[in-house]
Specification:
The chain has 391 residues and is an alpha/beta fold. The chain has 17 helices and eleven strands. Pfam families: NAPRTase (PF04095), NAPRTase_N (PF17767).
Length: 391
């Protein structure tokens, strides 16, 4: 099977899941899959994808895996005990042919607590099923050559001594096998420049740091779970701080765009959170705005971390590093460019929450094509409430 461990997912799924257990255990949600790549025919692989998802739903956490999670400083004992009983409910996911030619529909409906772990492994399954059918004879030599070039860029650059990059590529990887090789290669060759992996299984297996805090779905769900829509971002950040008491302190900034984020990210949050993560829009403009925002709120930007993770390549990350290094702490999460850069065009696929407790939820980022919502009227209302420009 493609997925052989429930740890084969991103750390932020567990950090969000713990918040759900402790604060929103009754929340009901819906997720929907979307392939943004044009002209892709996934319909021939529906049965193969279903078979892999069936296998995913048979998995349980082993005692060794639970012990690993238990030893993470921010994971609480009752959450680990819950995971000891956990499995993904197959009745909550469906895979069918979509309405457009070649399109498939993957929908997840059910308890947020019991379905939150579907997204990452399902995306990894779709990727690997597609590529093992479309490029069955592809060897990894081209990928190895490209990976070596990226690593050498950092090693050869005298101003990259404190460049920090993490591997963020589970959901877009060419295959699990290649993913393992990438992490091992980065660990062996990059030394202190390699910060760790978002993938918990990789972190456990290779002794690297697991990295991640929150994803878009967390702030989206709070649109339905908070007291009122306008305060949903503040509500989400406050609940996060309540759960982690200063740990996992990187705030996600682009669910409503940078303007709305900075309006809500006041002096209290500037001081409380360790930094923020960029995931859409111009990274240089975003970084400058964040540094100015910290200064305006009487916070020394050099004490804060800016994490960049929006479709990065190594040359772009190096340029960002040169701009902000020394002015703040800088870190990078690179996904597709590490785990699916082998000479074939990667898929652009996502699986986003679209409803929580029966109410539409949405992400309205600084890049319009990343907006995803199944209710146009709600999206218009959301834009009005957060004073966002019309699409």
């Amino acid at each position: 099977m493609i997925i052989q461990s429930l740890l084969d997912t991103d750390l932020y799924k567990f950090s969000m899941m713990q918040v759900v257990l402790h604060h929103f255990p009754g929340a009901q949600v819906e997720y929907r899959f979307k392939c943004r790549s044009k002209g892709i025919d996934l319909q021939p692989y529906i049965e193969e994808i279903r078979s892999e998802i069936h296998g995913l739903c048979q998995l349980r956490f082993s005692e060794d895996e639970l012990d690993y999670l238990r030893n993470l400083r921010f994971i609480k004992g009752d959450f680990v005990e819950f995971l000891g009983l956990f499995h993904l409910p197959e009745k909550c996911i469906s895979v069918t042919a979509g309405q457009e030619p070649g399109e498939i529909s993957i929908e997840v409906k059910g308890s947020w607590l019991h379905t939150i772990l579907f997204e990452i492994p399902v995306l990894a399954i779709v990727n690997e099923v597609y590529f093992r059918n479309k490029a069955p004879d592809l060897d990894y030599e081209e990928g190895r050559r490209r990976l070596e070039e990226k690593i050498q860029l950092i090693i050869d650059a005298p101003d990259m001594a404190n460049f920090k990059v993490a591997e963020y590529g589970t959901r877009r990887r060419f295959s699990g096998e290649w993913h393992h090789e990438v992490v091992q290669t980065l660990q062996k060759q990059m030394g202190v420049n390699f910060a760790g992996s978002s993938n918990v299984l990789m972190a456990k297996q290779y002794g690297v740091t697991p990295l991640g805090t929150m994803g878009h779905e967390y702030l989206q769900a709070c649109q339905a779970l908070g007291p009122r829509l306008r305060d949903s971002q503040v509500f989400a950040l406050e609940k996060w701080a309540m759960e982690y008491r200063g740990d996992l302190g990187i705030a996600l900034s682009d669910v409503y765009g940078t303007n709305a984020f900075l309006r809500d990210f006041d002096m209290y949050f500037c001081k409380l959170f360790d930094g923020a993560r960029h995931d859409s829009g111009d990274p240089f403009e975003w970084g400058e705005r964040l540094l100015a925002h910290y200064r305006n709120n009487r916070v020394d930007p050099s004490t804060k971390t800016l994490v960049f993770s929006d479709g990065l390549s190594f040359p772009v990350a190096m340029d960002i590093h040169r701009r902000f290094n020394g002015r703040c702490k800088v870190s990078f999460g690179i996904g597709t460019n590490l785990t699916n850069d082998l000479g074939v065009k990667p898929l652009q696929i996502v699986m986003k929450m679209v409803r929580c407790n029966g109410q539409p939820v949405a992400k309205v980022s600084d890049e319009p094509e990343k907006t995803m919502c199944d209710d146009p009227a709600y999206l218009t209302y959301l834009r009005h409430v957060f004073d966002l420009p019309a699409a």
